[in-house]
Amino acid sequence: MSKVILGGGLSGLSAAYYLLRKNPASCLTLIESSNRLGGWIKSNQIEDVIFEEAARTLRPRGEPGINTLELIDELGLSNKVNPITLDSPAARNRMIYANGQLVSLPSGIKDLFVRNPPFSKPLIRHFIKDLVTAREVNKDESIYSFTKRRFGEEVADYLISPLICGICAGDAKEISVNFIMKDLFEYEQKYGSIGRGMMYALLFKKKNALNHNALSLRARNEKWSVYSLNGGLETLTKTLSDKIRQHKTLELKMNSQCKEIKFGNPSASITLDNGSIQNHEHVISSIPSYQLSNLIKNSHPELSSLLNNIKYVSVCVINLMFDENIIKKDGFGFLVPPKEKIPILGVIFDSCCFPNKTNKNVVTVMMGGKWFEEYFSHEMTEEELLTVATKYLKLTMNVKKDPVAYKVNLLKDCIPQYKVGHNENVHKIEDYIKKNNIPLTICGCSYYGVGVNDVILSTRNMVQKIQ
User: Domain Amine oxidase, which positions (predicted)?
Assistant: First the structure.
């Protein structure tokens, strides 16, 4: 019997790629409910400009970043890499919208010693607070609570909260510090403060040797901050799709909805929406946790409940093109602290990051997330969502004209929220699967990281354990 992958998004494609690379002769079925592969990653070309619906840049550093660069090289995409270097305005200039104006965040050491709005004192004084604040022993807590204890309320409000909006469209008062900022949390727990932990790591801790590849060495030498691919990030998923389709042992089932999974020993029975039943020796689930929860609720209610503990939020991503210069200061864009009480999460300056041949200004407005239900509804029309985006773009950036082109993308339940206790919940899921000898592997952004790099590496690590 074959193995089956549920879901043809980035994680599902990565799982298929790594499984077939490990054993090209293995029989593998990939089931995708829609008519396309690639999941949320989608790059739309309008007037020679790329409108990204979701992720648009990748970081080249650390084990996850190096792994993705290795994959890009293996896929023959090295010549399509489009980097932003550390000395570019898009890497150096990042802003927030606070107290009715756009303000730049610190970009160098000297910025720590001067007072810049919206902070009431130089940031160095906030960091000194960490050194004199006693450790509080915890298994986990919210990033907001952790940051407020260590650095003060202003850092929590104006640095960390908008950062979490950018990472997962979430509320820092709910998101787990022991997942998103695990290293900083462990510094406090082990050494008493973040500062002492960082100094110890710099002076005494042995660094893990990273296995650099040719492309990651190039990224280091050329000092990339982030990068994309020519044609947009969908170039990656399309190439992955083309690569796995070359294997004759792979069966693709598009427009096929899985309705139920029953696990036996040692196989699994999958019922599809056309009434057919497939038997496989192992299931790799890359679909969102709430979808998997629904498929097994009858046979494994306890596991279903654990999966359902992971909540998701919806995000509206609106790409806008202007025929005038609306960007007054080059940079990556800006984020909005939740305390500003406006419905946008932030704005990305696409044409600053990757200039286009049309000389038109392109920006992307992100809205909703944790606050989607507060400001929006899934029944809103594209025109209504566009109206909100342009209204707040005019407010925050003093834009006078309307866009000449746009694309409205409503991404329902697209980003998981790693709330306090997430690590413990995932461990319970893994333990249940192992204890009950269920032929199931879980992967994807529900569990081990929302970023593209995290998804690819965690999927690779999970499928390598499959016999």
Answer: 10-466
Q: Fold for domain 112-203?
A: protoporphyrinogen ix oxidase, domain 3 (1.10.3110)
Give, as one character, the DSSP assignment of residue 158.
Answer: I
Amino acid type, 146: F
Write down the domain spans for the chain: 3-37+235-310+421-464, 112-203
Q: Please list the pLDDT of the chain residue by residue as tens digits (467 residues).
A: 689 999 999 999 999 999 999 999 889 999 999 999 999 999 999 888 999 999 999 999 999 999 999 999 999 999 999 999 999 999 999 999 999 999 999 888 888 999 989 999 999 999 999 999 999 999 999 999 999 999 999 999 999 999 999 999 999 999 999 999 999 999 999 999 999 999 988 887 666 667 889 999 999 999 999 999 999 999 999 999 999 999 999 999 999 999 999 998 788 999 999 998 899 999 999 999 999 999 999 999 999 999 999 999 999 999 999 998 899 899 999 999 999 999 999 999 999 998 877 778 999 999 999 999 999 998 999 999 999 999 999 999 999 989 999 999 999 999 999 999 999 999 999 999 999 999 999 999 999 999 999 999 999 999 999 97
Bridge-partner residues for 225, per DSSP? none
Q: Are 321 and 360 in contact (CB under 8 A)?
A: yes
* 3 state SS of 437: coil
As its CATH architecture, domain 3-37+235-310+421-464 has 3-Layer(bba) Sandwich (3.50)
Strands of 36-165, DSSP E: 43-46, 49-52, 81-85, 94-98, 101-104
Of the candidates 448, 455, 403, 397, the one whose C-alpha atom is nearest the C-alpha of residue 426 is 448
Report whether 417 contacts 174 (CB < 8 A): yes
Q: Do residues 341 and 198 touch, judged by C-beta distance below 8 A?
A: no
Q: What is the DSSP string of 243-259?
A: HHHT-TTEEEETT--EE
Instruction: Tell me if the pTM is above 0.90.
Output: yes
